[in-house]
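Supplementary Note 3. Input sequence used for the single-chain structure prediction.
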Amino acid sequence: MNASERATGLDTANKIATVVNLFKAEFPDAKADLKPWKNDPHTRELIDPDSLDIGFHFPGWSRRFQSNSILVQIRLHQDSLDNQERLIGLEVAGFSHQGQAWRLSTIEYWQFMGKNQPVEDVKQKLKLFCRQVFELFSPR
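The predicted structure, written as discrete structure tokens, is reproduced below.
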């Protein structure tokens, strides 16, 4: 679900802002998009209501990223016992004009998959970003 639609409370809005700042700390050229999904019926059917989705766009195609846009999907689960949202994991994908170029899932093995993957230092920065998001969403 678009991050802008999930920002209904102060805590969630603060977490979204922190996620954007964490990403921009590693990749300052990125521009955040809190509405990466179109608002049409077909797209709405595909959207996970339990995710918090943020797009990041670069000024152009990047050889280092092998993409020009990155979609970050933060997968959440509402715990019915204490009514807290728990982080399940992140799905991060790089896109170019040809479609999805690569993907990283922290739900699986924290491995990059795809034909055109980012260079090693970008991979390490993306994994660091994911670890920081885990810290942000960890119960206090």
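The radius of gyration is 15 Å. The chain has one domain: 3-137.
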